[in-house]
Amino acid sequence: MFGSSTLIKRSPRRQEVDRQVAAYLISRGNEARDARDWSRAALWYEEALRLAPRRADIHVQRGHMLKESGALEAAEQAYQAARALTPDDADLALQLGHLYKIADRPDEARASYKRALVLKPGWDAAAQELARLDEMTAPAAAQESVQDKVVPPDPEATLAAAAAALADPATMARLVPALAPRAPHELLEHFGPTLKLSAFAREEPGFWGMMRTVRGVEAIRGFSLSPVPIEEIQLLLDGAIFYRGSVRGPFKLQQEARPSALRKYVFNIWHDFSGFAQGRHAFELRAIDAEGETQSFHADIVIAPPLTETDYPDSDALVGIVEPDPASLEQKIRARATVVRPAARNLFAQEPRNILVLRTDQLGDMIASIAAVRRLRELFPEARLVGLLTAANAELAATLGLFDEVIVIDFADDPIEQRRLMPLPQQEALRSRLEAYRFDIAIDLAQAQVSRDLLRLTGASFLYGVEGDSSGWLSASFGLNTYDRLNRLDRVPHARKTLALVETLGAITRDSFEVVRRPDLDRAPLERFGIGPNDRYAVLHLGARIAFSRWAHFPELAAVLLARTDLKVVMMTEDAGVRDTLSPALSQDPRFQLLDQRLAFDDFDRFVSFATVLVGNDSGPKHLAARRGTNVVTIHMSRINWSEWGQEGVGSILSRRVPCAGCAVFHAPEECGKDFACLRDIGTEEVFEAVKAYV
Questions:
Q1: CATH 1.25.40.10 matches 16-136
Q2: Residue 594 and residue 642: Cα distance in Å, rounded?
Q3: Would the pLDDT of 5 be above 70?
């Protein structure tokens, strides 16, 4: 009978073959495990289990590998499969406890550790894990003490109490609870052991799709949360260790819901990948604790050719190291000079001369783009406009005289894949043809993502289009939606959104800066601060909202300015403690004045508006001074881009090239990992040399 056991029963010979093949697969898994290639080992063990499904030990090994890879749900399934075969295995109960602890499931972890003790009474390993878990999940009384330290309790400030006080439902419906202060316990967070990579590589499109891509010198930045001290960070490529280093820490966790032994260990590794073979590789980061346990992060990456600073002069994140020097990479980076750039800047070094416009869709799309293309010509009247079109809209474009030249391509919708496709040979032919134009800008007018990837074949230095889920590789992206209140679809004609796309390009490529003086402001009131009508003076503004973004060497700069220029020096701060840190020689100099209290705005505006030069951190006063036409020297920390938040129009901006530029560290300054080298390494003499240009 079909399906009977006699028909599917394996012969002894087949069973022996299966056993031998399973043994081979297990040996390959063991090799991958010993090489710490956890994911590959898990796959070998999985294949072995297809032939030997009752091997509990292999289910356990597969669980270990999946746990190390971070696939916790799959690891639990593997362990449970082993438990079904060997329910009285104490070590398996312990491993399940480890898994649940990592997954921040403390109740299940506690139950597993207790089961391990039942199965193996007096077992020290299980008892220690249970005790450590109890420390991490302290009782409510201990939790309250943490809440008291984080935020002073205020019962009246809770959302429920505030809502009850309003009483009227109609009033409440007009309000936004998300903006109201939260109760203290709502500010607390639940932490568990974890390994987080805050920054490493960039998602770039390529032959293998969107992949993490590294080019030359890169920063690998992140942290581990662990109850056991982290002793070493290791980096591996294709299973081979290429870096070993230490961590910063331990740091206590803030706003922790449950007092625990967890601590934060930070790393910020600068490494040059240009010595590795280009192409696709398996990357792994390991954090190894004092007990030999490992946290791992795995990713496939692409190593690509390094970029050059000459091609990207405005980016502080690009660090090119070419000098033959025996010093370490970090020493070479930190020994480099601070970069001084003019505050007046444009997106393009010179006016764009060749612009490619993509409209590779249908007739209606071309009609909706008429106003946008005409506006593009108004914005760039000297540029040559080339249209990359399909046969469906090329003849219409010719009748309208929109383009200086039209290139027609075959980019039809494929009914099977339901998207527009272009075979690889046609892609290569198109790229070769377009590269000859040396386009400055390629702009895709399509609102959908159907033609976005064609931009990658244009060879243009600036790629622009509507933002989407995977548009981070564009040079700039545009996003605008209007909403029908009921169905949330757009309310404005497609043509207006396309025009807005072009108008935005015009806005970001045009300098809108202007000096705005106050005609009602005169400098006479400054005399009461010791600034005469003909005195030339420098304002040194020490403040910044983010404390760690304040440069530490303003007193030294003040002394240099007094010694080597004829300027008076006015130092401004709201920190009354600064006065006690100044040397007697500086504080008693008749040309020096410290203002350590908040001034009335008009007085502050006078100091800023009539100064010869203002030197400050990345803070609001530098923007005000520039708008008043005062020369400004900004000491800019590389946590954010100088090109975005540096003052416009006048003066200069000092910053440093570091691989981790753009970290955006804010509320957790310990995560820098380099003691804010991007600010601390800016030298007093470098700042003075920049100031000299305006004295």
A1: yes
A2: 28
A3: no
CATH architecture entry for 354-509: 3-Layer(aba) Sandwich (3.40)
Tell me the per-residue pLDDT of 294-323, one tens digit each, with 9 for 90 and over. 999 999 999 999 999 998 999 999 998 866
Q: Which fold has domain 524-692?
A: Rossmann fold (3.40.50)
Q: How far apart are CA 305 and CA 465, in angstroms?
A: 26
pTM above 0.85, yes or no: no
The percentage of residues in the chain with a pLDDT greater than 70, rounded to a whole number, is 93
For Cα atoms 436, 441, 444, give the angle at the middle one, nearest 5 degrees: 105
Q: DSSP E strands: which ranges in 517-599? A: 537-541, 568-572, 592-595
Q: What three-state secondary structure class fits 627?
A: helix
Across the chain, which distance is largest between two alpha carbons, in Å? 112
Cis peptide leading into residue 250 (ω within 30°): yes
Q: How is domain 194-306 classified at the architecture level of CATH?
A: Sandwich (2.60)
**Tokens representing residue 179 in the block:** 């903006």
Describe the strand order of the beta sheet including 294-304 as a list of residue ranges: 202-204, 211-215, 294-304, 279-289, 230-237, 240-245
CA gap 441, 384 in Å, rounded = 11
Give the model confidence (pLDDT) of 110-161 as tens digits. Answer: 888 888 888 888 888 888 888 877 766 554 333 444 344 444 445 445 555 5
